[in-house]
Amino acid sequence: AGLMGQNFPRVSIRNRAQNGSTVRGLYERLEENLPERSDLFIIFIGTNDIFQMRSLEEVQWYIHLVLERAREIAPHVILGQGGDVGSAPAFRNYPDIARIMTERTRVVQDIFRKACGRYGAHFLELFDWSRSDECTDLIHDLFHPEDGVHPSARCYREVYARTLQLVERTGICL
Asked: Can you give the pTM of this predicted structure?
């Protein structure tokens, strides 16, 4: 939100991000306080659902509800998820856990991609799973070294750049 505000000073930005949020938690917040109409609604969610081993059925149910609400708020919706959780440096010494997290990331992203198709939203692709068996995650090496899990400022700049590319490619006007 900060980079967007710096580069698009005439755009009104309301950052509703909340640390530790899950898809269900986001839906509940939207139900409590539906934001006013916007031109663009950007959602970046799902990593905590993967880490917390939330039921995939729950993730699927709530992402549909979130996207339905998002389309009531804005004609353009972008949905992204932070990347291959299994590639986080925190899991380097735990390959079995890393494989589970990578597989869950793939499934959650597939759920998100399909939900975007259903609701006319755009899924923000951060990396290409098809390149190899091991994900060629664009943000793989961009995690904070302190905890090996959370994205760095450099990572967020990359996500921002990819978001702008998607906005330009789809013709969304800012």
From this structure: 0.88
